[in-house]
Records
---
Amino acid sequence: MGELGGLLFGITIWAIPLIFAVTLHEAAHGYAAHACGDDTAYRMGRISLNPLRHIDPFGTIILPGLLLALGGVMFGWAKPVPVNFSRLRHPRRDMVIVAAAGPAMNMGLAILAILAVHLVPVMPEAIRGWFFLNLENAIFFNLLLAVFNMIPIPPLDGGRVAVGILPRPLAWRLARLEKAGMLILIAALFLFPLLGSRIGVDLDVFRWLVQGPVDTIGNALVRALGP
């Protein structure tokens, strides 16, 4: 395999599963919102399984490409599907359904990828390794997105689910964190580990909240469904 072939091989085994993981996550939100009475995404053409409808130039292409070039962990996002929660038939209940639809899609895709591993031995030998690595990365990305997005801090899906099921006084307090939610996550996931390394304390919140559950769930699913 030449240098160009090796580059294309590396890009495709990471890009294909990541693009489908993040774009189908958003598509699931749109389908759920439409089923619950909000046609905002439908009117904007976002009710689609076509990944091209959901690609965010920076979050889906540029950032993952930079991370791949730098040898970092691949991560990204798609364009958020617009949801008008006031148009939902039962706003609190349906908000939970719409929010949970994205992580549920990722869990479903991870399960499908694990089941598809059974097909590896019957694939043509020339693409067998490529096919297996795509499935392996699809399992990882989809479980990563499912677990990460269910962290119960708005504006993540888990935060919206929590707002929908908590008693109203607690839900209101949690909902007020939405504007600061991403700053809290960035601090917890990136700044805390740096601080911990300086003071000699393990503050790797990502490993506690995301990597650990991803490994546990992935191992359990592979044991139950894998070859």
---
Amino acid sequence: MRVKSHIPNMFTLFNLSLGVLSIINILAENYFLAALLILLAALMDRFDGKLARKFDAESDLGKELDSLCDLISFGVAPAILIWASHLINYGVIGMAIIILFPIAGAYRLARYNVTEFEGVYMGIPITVSGGIVALVNLYSMNYNTSTYFLIFMMMFLSYSMVSQKIKLKKR
């Protein structure tokens, strides 16, 4: 019975491991695998919450751990991916755009952890934003994607994570 309560956190830590592996692959310039690892981390993130509810293992520790892991897998890794694959030559402006993404994600996660959840997300979840970045990066590997589009996308997603005007029902 006790093992069941640790299963959701194992999925959460697997999510983190995939995020770190994604960053390692970015450093090795293997952007395709890095993007796939971010998407696989999103799948693990989907299961950890479901398993916590199923096994009645929800806890404050699990919630905080999930947020910390999500920040790496869906904030830091996607930002580094876009920077390394597309924005590395844009200097300080490229860095500022990329730094904004995990900052917005961290703020969104912190706000989510301290507010009462009523079935509606305020702003786009960081998992969704990071997944979009990974998918767009995969697309851009096969099709010419405007760097200006990628800059706009990163800024829009950053804004969307912290916006209180954007509301999404939990499914």
---
Amino acid sequence: MNISLRPNIKNRLLSLLPREEMIAICRDTEPVDLPRSMVVATPDEPVDHVYFPNSGILSVIAISPQGNRAEAGLFGRDGFSPTCAALGIDRSALEVFVQVPGEGLRLPYPSFLAALERSSEFRSLLLKFVHCLAIQTAFTSLSNAVHQIDKRLARWLLMCHDRTESDEIALTHEFISLMLAVRRPSVTTALHELEGSGFIRAERGYLTIRNRIGLEAFAADAYGQPEREYQRLIGPIL
């Protein structure tokens, strides 16, 4: 596809490439809508395409043999999926699906591998993101172990807010309970606490961040370290 015909490339990893390399890589991509619940990586199935979101939020989900599910990480225009592809692995062990709709670009897997071989800068940027997502996953495990649900929720909302251009985020109680691996009544209670403190406003199907600074202070050490690592190695998320 002619690069001049596509909208601005907002994916952070692609936009940081030297122009000629970006054009060479994007020439093989195609624009793609990312509707809510679209699966872009399925466990144990061959990788067909690698996705580079321009907007929206995607969740990385671990699924047990018995079907239990929990979110291991999330990303938006700051990343790509599946990350296993950057390591030359053609099957993902994790599910990745869209939690907040958006759009982006996708690259056929053979073209992706060729771009990795051709461009050391492309490969380096992708591996830095793989590292940053691993740090995020590690701190998700830490937060799940040591923080109460209200701080875990505050952290998760801040991470979602980082990846949107609006203070309003389309999220339901049911979806949050799945992402945090807790029961819905626990999510409802935690949302009421955050709303009562003036940090958010919760409406049917939507959450609005009202006091970002206060929400960060409330989250305390549950939030920040993975974000600082991304900033150090790659730059601002948005």
---
Amino acid sequence: MVNEAIEQRPTRASSIYLLLRNEILAGKLLPGAKLNIRDLSKTYASGLSPVREALNRLSAEGLALQADNRGFKVQPVSVPELADLTQARCWVNEIGVRESIEKGNTDWEEAVILNCHRLKRTPRFLPEEEMIPNPKWATVHKDFHQSLISACGSNWMIDTCSRLFDAAERYRNLARVAGVSRSDPRDEHQEIMSAAVDRETDLVIELLNAHFMRTAQLVQTVVGEAEENSA
């Protein structure tokens, strides 16, 4: 039992990878920011090898960029990539939603309803800090979107949607850091949930695509500015 616990304990490289990944996705590490291995090893009180391994994992995931003889930096952003990402989310989630509505049973319906309820009940910002995002909201937000495609029957599809969600979240958080946020008062998630459990496939896809597009349009100006700054 002790050996199993030791094996399951995160490695130093994994811990650093998760810390850096969260900071990149949250917009705390801006696009184009240098990721110096020696500086990071001091920050995390670690050797060079775990930091290098963490950066290689981030590079493979598309969150960091490695240039020959120039080290690593946070993956830059661009308006064309945002458009590509948004289109990919629309395409992949459409397939996942169609399959889930066709194959999903009452357990799937209950999961979609429950995750939507949790999202609605979770404050978006921390009560003690003005305009500081609530990490729990970010978690339940992703849980809701993943629940929509959770009955599609393909782990590859579910994993792809998860990766696309994280990439889009990075863009959304860059806009939030710049002081730009959604002002549309409509409860889009509630509308999407209702259409899903009613098995209105075309309506769910229409609402979901519009949901993705609104966010992309919101952050486009901020992304353009970030693209210029990181060039």
